[in-house]
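lol forgot to send this yesterday, sorry. C-alpha coordinates for the thing we talked abt
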Protein backbone atom coordinates (compact mmCIF):
# COMPACT_ATOMS: atom_id res chain seq x y z
CA UNK A 1 0.00 0.00 0.00
CA UNK A 2 1.43 3.26 -1.04
CA UNK A 3 1.35 6.45 0.91
CA UNK A 4 -1.43 7.94 -1.30
CA UNK A 5 -3.58 4.80 -0.92
CA UNK A 6 -3.13 5.01 2.89
CA UNK A 7 -4.15 8.67 2.95
CA UNK A 8 -7.19 8.05 0.75
CA UNK A 9 -8.26 5.04 2.86
CA UNK A 10 -7.82 7.03 6.07
CA UNK A 11 -9.79 9.94 4.59
CA UNK A 12 -12.61 7.61 3.54
CA UNK A 13 -12.69 5.98 6.99
CA UNK A 14 -12.75 9.39 8.72
CA UNK A 15 -15.49 10.63 6.36
CA UNK A 16 -17.61 7.51 7.04
CA UNK A 17 -17.06 7.97 10.80
CA UNK A 18 -18.07 11.63 10.49
CA UNK A 19 -21.21 10.68 8.52
CA UNK A 20 -22.14 7.99 11.08
CA UNK A 21 -21.66 10.46 13.95
CA UNK A 22 -23.73 13.10 12.20
CA UNK A 23 -26.48 10.56 11.46
CA UNK A 24 -26.45 9.35 15.10
CA UNK A 25 -26.70 12.97 16.30
CA UNK A 26 -29.59 13.61 13.91
CA UNK A 27 -31.40 10.48 15.16
CA UNK A 28 -30.95 11.46 18.80
CA UNK A 29 -32.28 14.97 18.18
CA UNK A 30 -35.11 13.60 16.06
CA UNK A 31 -36.35 11.32 18.86
CA UNK A 32 -35.74 13.71 21.75
CA UNK A 33 -37.11 16.83 20.11
CA UNK A 34 -40.12 18.39 21.85
CA UNK A 35 -43.01 18.86 19.46
CA UNK A 36 -45.13 22.00 19.31
CA UNK A 37 -48.14 19.99 20.47
CA UNK A 38 -46.27 19.04 23.65
CA UNK A 39 -45.29 22.66 24.25
CA UNK A 40 -48.91 23.76 23.72
CA UNK A 41 -50.12 21.08 26.10
CA UNK A 42 -47.62 22.19 28.75
CA UNK A 43 -48.70 25.81 28.35
CA UNK A 44 -52.36 24.80 28.67
CA UNK A 45 -51.61 22.74 31.77
CA UNK A 46 -49.68 25.60 33.35
CA UNK A 47 -52.56 27.99 32.63
CA UNK A 48 -55.06 25.55 34.17
CA UNK A 49 -52.82 25.16 37.21
CA UNK A 50 -52.61 28.94 37.58
CA UNK A 51 -56.40 29.24 37.37
CA UNK A 52 -56.83 26.43 39.91
CA UNK A 53 -54.45 28.20 42.32
CA UNK A 54 -56.40 31.45 41.92
CA UNK A 55 -59.67 29.62 42.58
CA UNK A 56 -58.14 27.98 45.66
CA UNK A 57 -56.93 31.35 46.95
CA UNK A 58 -60.39 32.85 46.41
CA UNK A 59 -61.99 29.92 48.23
CA UNK A 60 -59.59 30.28 51.15
CA UNK A 61 -60.33 34.02 51.36
CA UNK A 62 -64.08 33.36 51.24
CA UNK A 63 -63.82 30.71 53.96
CA UNK A 64 -61.78 33.01 56.18
CA UNK A 65 -64.33 35.80 55.78
CA UNK A 66 -67.20 33.39 56.42
CA UNK A 67 -65.45 32.03 59.51
CA UNK A 68 -64.94 35.56 60.83
CA UNK A 69 -68.63 36.36 60.23
CA UNK A 70 -69.76 33.18 61.97
CA UNK A 71 -67.39 33.78 64.90
CA UNK A 72 -68.76 37.31 65.27
CA UNK A 73 -72.33 36.03 65.04
CA UNK A 74 -71.60 33.35 67.64
CA UNK A 75 -70.12 35.93 70.01
CA UNK A 76 -73.20 38.15 69.59
CA UNK A 77 -75.53 35.19 70.17
CA UNK A 78 -73.61 34.20 73.31
CA UNK A 79 -73.80 37.79 74.59
CA UNK A 80 -77.56 37.86 73.94
CA UNK A 81 -77.97 34.50 75.69
CA UNK A 82 -75.97 35.72 78.66
CA UNK A 83 -78.11 38.86 78.88
CA UNK A 84 -81.31 36.80 78.59
CA UNK A 85 -80.15 34.43 81.33
CA UNK A 86 -79.27 37.38 83.54
CA UNK A 87 -82.72 38.88 82.95
CA UNK A 88 -84.40 35.55 83.67
CA UNK A 89 -82.39 35.19 86.87
CA UNK A 90 -83.43 38.70 87.96
CA UNK A 91 -87.08 37.98 87.06
CA UNK A 92 -87.06 34.75 89.11
CA UNK A 93 -85.50 36.54 92.04
CA UNK A 94 -88.10 39.31 91.80
CA UNK A 95 -90.92 36.74 91.54
CA UNK A 96 -89.60 34.96 94.60
CA UNK A 97 -89.51 38.27 96.52
CA UNK A 98 -93.07 39.02 95.45
CA UNK A 99 -94.22 35.54 96.57
CA UNK A 100 -92.62 36.03 99.97
CA UNK A 101 -94.16 39.49 100.27
CA UNK A 102 -97.62 38.16 99.33
CA UNK A 103 -97.27 35.27 101.80
CA UNK A 104 -96.28 37.74 104.54
CA UNK A 105 -99.25 39.92 103.70
CA UNK A 106 -101.61 36.93 103.76
CA UNK A 107 -100.16 35.62 107.02
CA UNK A 108 -100.20 38.97 108.77
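and heres what i got for the seq, position by position
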Amino acid sequence: MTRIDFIITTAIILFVAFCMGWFANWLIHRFTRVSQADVDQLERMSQELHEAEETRDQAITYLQQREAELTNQLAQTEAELSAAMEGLRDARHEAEELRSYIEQQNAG
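The helical segments are 3-32, 36-107. anyway ping me if u want another try
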